[in-house]
Design brief:
By secondary structure, the protein is of the alpha/beta class. It has 3 domains: 201 residues, FAD/NAD(P)-binding domain, CATH 3.50.50.60; 110 residues, FAD/NAD(P)-binding domain (3-Layer(bba) Sandwich), CATH 3.50.50.60; 105 residues, 2-Layer Sandwich (Enolase-like, domain 1). 30% of the residues lie in helices and 25% in strands. The strands form 6 sheets. Strands 1, 2, 3, 4, 5, 6 and 19 form a 7-stranded mixed β-sheet that branches. The chain has a 5-stranded parallel β-sheet with strand order 8-15-9-10-11. Helix 1 runs parallel beside helix 8. The chain starts with a strand and ends in a 10-residue tail after the last helix.
Length: 463
């Protein structure tokens, strides 16, 4: 008789959610974790970075206090306290996850799991073997080693290293203009660091709508954040107390020295130590290949989260974990629609989106309409002193269906769910425009953008 109905390898936002959902469905479940529960997201990603971003927000409010009629002398800003606060937040949440696992009856096993066969894993540290009818791999992803960049974790660092720095560098180059890169750029600039973002493609956040990227770039340039797009990194060398980075920008080869270089690109699946070859799991570029129900080519083995390479987001991992647990329990499951999954970037101003960009919709030959509302026309935004941004809706011309939503502005990451539920329930911009929103709120911008699709917005002039 096998020890468990299910073993989950990894306790990140995919793994622990899968384990808890499995026990809710009556499956005897164990979770194996080599580090702290919660995975990279809780311990070294989503949560601590958002804590630091909140500190950066407070710092910017304080620096701009005169605008609110508040003046003072001898301002002292201690970044180490921000880091300490972020670690305290992490500690509370990891304890919370441990409590949930325990109360739901999940056996929490410490150690590295390696496959022996399709129903057996061995714990590296104890050599103990445990067995289960089904196994879910939820080991996440890690920083990829890139050609020409030798990360020494001192002067050339990863995002995890950055979360442990107690002192803001005077200057920093951030390689990569994606979500991680622009978030750390905001944090470091807020605390006084001279920041340069180096991006290979032609704009920041190249996966976002081009108009949103342009607004962010304009905002960052106004804060003296240096942006080098269309730039290739040739080499990075760690010096005694700094790092030298060689790039090609505007067809010119230049070498610049910074106190730190943060590498914010490249990820690979955490699969190298699992002994997947012993059971023949299929992988591609280090990521595990899965079907729509998260099953692998081995019938009783599943994979979820970043280790699949599908969409490297914590909430995606959680959704995949729930899906896999329910499939294993014998429930009828519905595959995830990745095109409708929301994305959030917590820089300043915030960015939120789902679905097609305007460029993608046009390239697909769809007949579309676009509705926009500038945050500068929002009474609430002006009242709180954060009026940068726009709400932009991409809509099917004949049906009024939301094909995509793209927002940049204050707290827009909290607004996106309204648009997501509209999409889920097959609502149109007609319903969204009819819905009465509370005043004054930033959410009124959603209503106005929906009305603008048909030229009936009230608080902006028709173009």
């Amino acid at each position: 008789m096998l020890d468990y109905d299910l073993i989950v390898i990894g306790s990140g936002p995919g793994g622990y959610v899968a384990a808890i959902r499995a026990t809710q469905l009556g499956l005897k479940t164990a979770i194996v974790e080599s580090d702290e529960v919660g995975g990279v997201c809780l311990n070294w990603g989503c949560i601590p970075s958002k804590s630091l971003l909140k500190n950066a927000e407070v710092v910017n409010i304080v620096k701009d206090a005169a605008k609110y009629g508040i003046e003072f002398d001898n301002l002292k800003i201690d970044y180490s306290k921000a880091v300490s606060r972020s670690r305290n937040v992490v500690s509370k949440l990891t304890q919370g996850v441990k409590f949930l696992l325990k109360k739901n009856g999940v056996d929490n096993i410490k150690g590295h799991a390696r496959f022996v066969d399709t129903t057996t894993v061995q714990i590296k540290e104890s050599n103990k073997s445990i067995t289960a009818t089904n196994i879910i791999i939820a080991t996440g992803a890690k920083q990829k080693q890139l050609l020409g960049i030798n990360i020494d974790h001192k002067n050339i660092i990863t995002s995890r290293d950055a979360l442990e720095l107690n002192k803001i560098p005077d200057s920093i180059a951030i390689i990569g203009g994606g979500a991680t890169g622009v978030e750390f750029a905001h944090i470091y600039e807020s605390y006084g660091s001279k920041v340069t973002i180096i991006e290979l493609l032609d704009r920041l956040l190249p996966q976002e709508d081009e108009e949103i990227s342009n607004i962010l770039e304009k905002s960052y340039l106004s804060r003296n954040i240096n942006i080098l797009t269309k730039s290739s990194v040739i080499n990075v060398v760690s010096l005694e107390n700094s790092a030298s980075i060689q790039i090609i920008h505007n067809n010119e080869n230049e070498t610049i020295e910074y106190d730190k270089v943060l590498v914010a690109i490249g990820a690979e699946g955490n699969t190298s130590d699992l002994k997947l070859e012993s059971i023949g799991i299929q992988t591609e570029n280090s990521f595990i290949t899965t079907n729509e129900d998260m099953s692998t080519n081995i019938p009783n083995v599943y994979a979820i989260g970043d280790v699949t390479g599908k969409m490297l987001l914590a909430h995606v991992a959680s959704a995949q974990g729930t899906l896999a647990a329910e499939k294993i329990a014998g429930l009828a499951v519905k595959s995830l629609n990745y095109d409708s999954i929301p994305k959030a970037v917590y820089c300043q101003p915030q960015i939120a989106s789902f679905g097609m960009t305007e460029q993608e919709a046009l390239m697909s030959n769809k007949s579309i309409k676009v509705g926009k509302f500038p945050i500068t026309a929002s009474g609430k935004a002006l009242a709180i002193g954060e009026s940068e941004g726009i709400v932009k809706l991409i809509v099917d011309e004949s049906l009024g269906e939301l094909l995509g939503a793209h927002l940049i502005g204050p707290e827009v990451t909290e607004l996106l769910s309204e648009l997501s539920i509209t999409k889920l329930l097959e609502g149109t911009v007609n319903e969204l425009g009819e819905l009465i929103h509370p005043h004054p709120t930033i959410s009124e911008a959603l209503k106005e953008a929906a009305l603008d699709v048909n030229g009936t917005a009230i608080h902006i002039l028709k173009a």
